[in-house]
Amino acid sequence: METSESMPSSVPSQPSREQARDVPSARAGGPVPPRAPRADAGERDATLPVRVADAPVLGPTGRPLQVFADPEPLSSHGPARIIAMCNQKGGVGKTTTTINLGAALAELGRKVLVIDFDPQGALSVGLGVNAQELDLTIYNLLVERGHEIHDVIAHTSTPGLDLVPANIDLSAAEVQLVGEVAREQVLARVLRPVLDEYDVILIDCQPSLGLLTVNALTAAHGVLIPLECEFFAMRGVALLIDTIDKITDRLNPRLKVDGILATMYDSRTLHSREVVRSVVDHFGDQVFETVISRTVKFPDATLAAEPITTYSSDHSGANAYRQLARELIARGDAA
């Protein structure tokens, strides 16, 4: 039997408790370097990243973040610029954007009229109007003679924001308009009497490219395309752009795409960031700088039948739509 003297000298002896206190922990995979002394005021730790003062701050679109100033107040109102909120895919934020963009523009002193052009009537409900109980809606203006749009306009709880409501009756209008002369221009005729009374008219289109949507695009000066930050939502944009090009060529030469608005954005997910990057790569400056993030406050505001700008005025979602309103005006796409 070997004695302790014959054991290899390379085997370390156990350190004492006092020595162990001075031995750095090896759990991180290696010796821990001594902590550098705290820098005095005015000095900087050389291990921290340097932020160049002139480097621009990038927004969610990957472009330098812009801040749009409040526009000058208007001395008079009209003529209105008509904007169709259009995307044949449902659930991308058309109605939410119509309500909250309209309210944000009204906050800036603009007179805004929003048109519910979807038989589901979500825009009307979201602004506190029960269109099912109304005798006159946008349907009657489209298919019946003898009605004035002033008789149908409803005032909302937001000053400067008015509504032309709709209900399920509107679904029959598409069939009834087929036999009309110049059937694509019926909505333009309906809106003509109020063009000088408003600064912006927003049309909330149904999720299709049928005759009602063609009417909205024929009446409009511009198209705003809300696009959910999800790859399936991107697939229909090319078809929508093609439809817009056909209407511009055949029915409405003044029509243009005002911009593509990224909605339901979640900065925590790689998927959302990649979708925004891909949209910007394909459409460039047509994509708004403003991005609308996903938040539960939007459905909460809808349940309360008011815009988020009044339901939760300080929320980031309300500020995003205020930013969009200022951007739209700065681009020249609204008065």
Description:
By secondary structure, the protein is an alpha/beta fold. It contains 13 helices and 8 strands. The protein has helices at residues 17-22, 94-107, 122-126, 138-143, 170-176, 186-191, 211-219, 231-235, 237-250, 270-283, 297-303, 308-311, 316-330, and strands at residues 81-85, 112-117, 154-155, 161-164, 200-205, 222-228, 256-265, 287-293. An 8-stranded mixed beta sheet has the order 3-4-2-5-1-6-7-8, sandwiched between helices. Helix 2 crosses helix 13. The longest helix has 15 residues, at 316-330. The radius of gyration is 29 Å and the shape is globular. Residues 1-12, 23-30 and 36-52 have low confidence and may be disordered.
Task: Please outline the helices and strands.
Elements: H1 17-22, E1 81-85, H2 94-107, E2 112-117, H3 122-126, H4 138-143, E3 154-155, E4 161-164, H5 170-176, H6 186-191, E5 200-205, H7 211-219, E6 222-228, H8 231-235, H9 237-250, E7 256-265, H10 270-283, E8 287-293, H11 297-303, H12 308-311, H13 316-330
Parallel strand pairs: 1-5, 1-6, 2-4, 2-5, 6-7, 7-8
Antiparallel strand pairs: 3-4
Helix pairs in contact: 2-13
